[in-house]
Amino acid sequence: MATLAQLESQIQKLQRRADVLRERKSIEVIAKIRAMMDEFGLTIADLAKAGSGTRKTRGRPAGSGQSAISRKGATKSKLPPKYRDPESGATWSGHARPPAWIKDAPDRSVYLINGAASKNGARKRKSARNAAA
Fold this sequence. Notes:
H-NS_C_dom, elongated, mainly alpha
């Protein structure tokens, strides 16, 4: 079995061989490109000009307005807290995943912040009246 030093030596030798092959291949490719440029009368400026117009870009053009992320953040407002942990003072709005301190509570009304229940109750009664009308 080979030692670590032997393997590292082999890796270095293989890397040097790969670099030499890459250099030879790039010289051949450059020669072919120059021959084709001479054949068609192209210059480097022609390549630069052609490359800038043909490449498709993804997404909205730069400077065309707000990005989706900034629009999304600007329209959403933070919800007011509905529940409070009496021990730590941590709050929760009642939306999304419940925090650990209230997750397994059998009755969450114990954690309601004063006024949160009456606001929701008033909202529910109002919508019930609108539905009955």
